[in-house]
Structures
1.
Amino acid sequence: MFQSSSRLSILDIGCGNDSPSLFKHWYPNSIYHGLDVAHYNLSEKDEKMMDKFIIVKPGQSYNEILIQKYDIIVMNHVIEHMNDSSERVEELCNFLNPGGILYTAFPSVKSLSFPSAIGTLNFCDDPTHVFVPCIRDISNILLANGVKVIYAGKSKDSIRYIIGFILNIYQYIRKLFFQNTNAKGLWFYYGFESSVIGIKK
């Protein structure tokens, strides 16, 4: 949808785990702002890649700290860590430029019944998960705030699904001998992740 040469403005909520480097790799000319409650899982390289890093206090309104609108806003596995996520998603809708994209990804409701695994396969494997997001509720927030939902459902990736299928066999054998399972590579096979994507009218 966007060209890599575009001068996009990007806001990444919860910007750790190499996210700044990945965005700057694919969109080198973008203006990238990261927002988080702390310098969490940010390498020195990632910090240098960001044009701006914004600290938000738990429970603090985005209206208090954001001063511009963005072409892309990302909430990748953030909502499930927030007790006030509905309010925050609603606020973010106001910080999208017309035609701007809001991307959210979070554990599916079904993950509550998945087997437990190292690295999180069951929602409750991660003690910092405090809120079970619902695709319908997130979609309704977007629709009520002028954001058209263009996708809502299970996150899909055929290659990762096939890899997960193979790894699931390996993990089953591993469990027989070591009594534990590692979630790495299994998310797309199990359907752990849901996503809602909207575009500002």
2.
Amino acid sequence: MRPIWKGSLTFGLVHLPVELHSAVRSGERVSFRQLHKRDHSPIKYQRVCEADGDVVPWDDIVKGYEYAKGKFVVLDDDDFKAAALVSSKTFEILDFVRAEEIDARYFEAPYFLLPGKGGEKAYALLREAMRRSGMVGIGKITMRSNSHHLAAVKVVEDALVLEVMRFESELVDVGSLSFPEATAVRPQELQMAEQLIENLAEPFTPSKYKDEYKENLERIIKAKLKGKKIKLDEPEEPESTPVVDLMARLQESLAKGKRRPAPRAPAKTARKKRRTA
């Protein structure tokens, strides 16, 4: 796999050669083209002028910022060059912060950081120091022209992961929304809800969660390619819980909750007990 970015990661006076590789797969979803219903010909999109309805060639298109309804400031290539930041091959960790202090909404896209040649020891040193301290490194990175990002470096198992972050201005102010007060919850309801959560607790196993919509689409496509038609079960609408019925629903959920099997005794101990008997 070719790296997305090559450069160095610095913290203090330490320079660590690194490569950036995508940590997620893209293009996995089922994609579709728009077709003419009559003859199934693909539909083309054209750039049409709103004023006269004519198709506009690329050479006659400029970029404009709409500062008021129907009023624009036009920017040319020189304006974008003036705003551009110098492309850098260095990601400098500016600060180390505690992981639990960062709102999860800041994180956007993860990338694996791999050590470059000769950087293995420094990589392992930084990783283990961050693991033991529980810290996350914060800095800025320019991966492509005009692509300037806030980013964090964190430890995930044996890897250092660089995660592109959103800037503060991109987050919705939580103060602009209203949420229920904790005083609206009765102690017995809270205790029962905690018990229900504990009953449903399991280790996180990502493989058990499937994209059922994608699987259904793929089954339908495969059947149509063979000239067949399949019927899938219609999804059941989840039943809403009236607020007045909340306590009863909690009790009902606990009654139907998972009953964990009692732990079995080790085989050697069981055989030993049988001999004694």
3.
Amino acid sequence: MESTVQVIAPLAERLRPRSLAEFTGQEHLVGTGKLLHQLIQSQQLPSLLLWGPPGSGKTSLATILANSIDANFIFFSAVLSGVKDIRRVVDEAKQQTEHQRTILFVDEIHRFNKGQQDAFLPHVESGLLTLIGATTENPSFHVIAPLLSRCQTLVLKQLSPEDIQFIVNRALTDKENGLGKYNFSLETDAVESIIHFADGDSRRALNCLETAATLTLEATKTSKREKPVITPEIIHEAGQYRSLRYDTAGEEHYNQISALHKSLRDSDPDGAIYWLTRMIEAGEDPLYIARRLIRFASEDIGNADPHALQVALNCREAYHMLGSPEGELALIQAAVYLATAPKSNALYMAGKKVDWDIKKTGTLPVPLHLRNAPTKLMKEIGYGKGYHYAHDQEEALVDQEHLPAELAGRVYYEPTTRGYEAVIRDRLIKWRKILKQRALKHEQKKN
């Protein structure tokens, strides 16, 4: 006799909202009078890109929108589908055109390559398909420009602790699709534990709650309690380890390295330690962070503290030798040193000015007096003629131009008055004054 196994959908799927009234969070989009609320009322839906963190409601919103305007809704996974599947969707949409619109929901659209995106671009342009793409990554990094320009990008926010608590309470009281029939009680600290574990992700919260409910029911069988009670200890057991939201090649990677760099530049060691540690705990390559610290030492400190570059180089060497976790302290040490060092971007600005002049003037010839003259012919045509050897001059200073004639007199490096650069600044001012006085005396002798 054959038997069938009943497959029960996960709690997060069973509780997926079916209307805006059941949807939690994203009030800036779904509240009365807001964009999505108005689109549903008007029964007009443009192509959209829903960009937000995991568990913020992207798929639920797409489903609600499709159901609200009576459309043929096709779910499409960028991970599992290819160009052949896109053609099948287009054929299906052509058959539906006379009856109802086709909404193509592409989950994780950032995983589509250029060829796949190009395949359905003309059908979005023609209106055959209304595209709703969901992504956790910045669309401007991963969606081709023609497609991006034809879609309206909506930014979903991470769910608040209050949103997560509301979703958890609904799961515990919903007798049809949730856990209401078991009459669970949830200790106050357990609620806080779920919120902490969820980190703004409703799916993560419900998965944790579902596992905790299973563990609680098992524990209740062997305990004297009449009512199943979900405790913080059970939540901890169900959640185990909360991974931090991060992608070493995506939006959070760029956001957090930017936060680290700006904390260092703004001389905030606490912010620097926080973002550095966040990145490491989320899985970032510590040697990548070390490379960024080395860059920062030259870009934002430079000669205001010449030791900064050596500190940054040493921290990379220390981590390379020790590895994790011992070597991570060297990264923190370097970050604190760089954050508290005097700041200057004079070297960075000098490089930008030189780069601009090179692009504008091209390959200007080296002045003859600066050229080496190892052969007789070179000497005869003027190589090295008129060059003044610095060590033969008073104070080892020479008054001669080292730039091409077209750029004579240009000043690229302008040291600040901060840190050691103040010493360099005073030194350059002194040297220029000496050279100016020497030139004046020379003119007076000639006259």
4.
Amino acid sequence: MGVASHAMMHQLLDRFLHYLIVEKGLSSNTIEAYGHDLNRFLTDLKKKGIEEIDQVSKIDIREFLLRLKREGLSSKTQARVLVSIRGFFRFLTEEAILTVSPAEEIDSPKLAKTLPEILSLDEVERLLEQPEPESAQGLRDRAMLEILYATGMRVSELVRLQTDHVHLDAGYVLLYGKGSKERIVPIGQEAMRWVERYLKESRQRLLKARESRFLFISRSGTPMSRQQFWKSIKAYGRKAGIHKRITPHLLRHSFASHLLERGADLRSVQLMLGHVDISTTQIYTHVTGERLKKIHQQYHPRG
């Protein structure tokens, strides 16, 4: 490979990393990981005598990933490397340096499915009881936690929720998930009660005479952000004395597992979670399976 060509590929990499810092605001650790993965990839291309970025094919990327696998890198690391490569080529197509990306159609390495951590019923109760409903923010937070656990919605769906998406009279909420796919999810009496109370007592106080189509409002009168809610839920988790890593997604996992434990069918849970592929939902059956094994051992005469 000519020195000039190789330098050009590294210039493109520098442009990409600069874009991640300035446009995407990624952390220095993430930028470092991208840089490490892509430098390694470019070195591999150099050894193969590939001189220009537009000469890189799908086969070159697959061979590189295969080499990493042979070297004993975990599926998780291989998947991360592919994300780096995919992001780099996507950037190059957006910048019109390439017309198509050779990385798009490559499947991620199959990751070993790990069981999601969940909260017990007692832990959920303790978490939900932490906000102080006497204050406007506390009442809002209680309503947010209740509706999150009642529906299993994603935190992005929660903060984007609009007032006309919540149908308290009919007992359901209209959600727009990944790819703007619409789904209807029941709310349940307890969550309905807290959302109704929040609408009556708290929302206008937070809006301060402003207008907003969004349901959940911050202290500054603007829609709640994911970061704000993330911070709140972590603080409530600590206050409740829960030692698990509290995230909004933990309530989504708990919602799914608690429904399946009580006999809900997988297809219904899939629809409520908004999973396109039922295999994504099937991970929760492992949780149920473990519980059933314990019940069998406890109550079966030959367990």
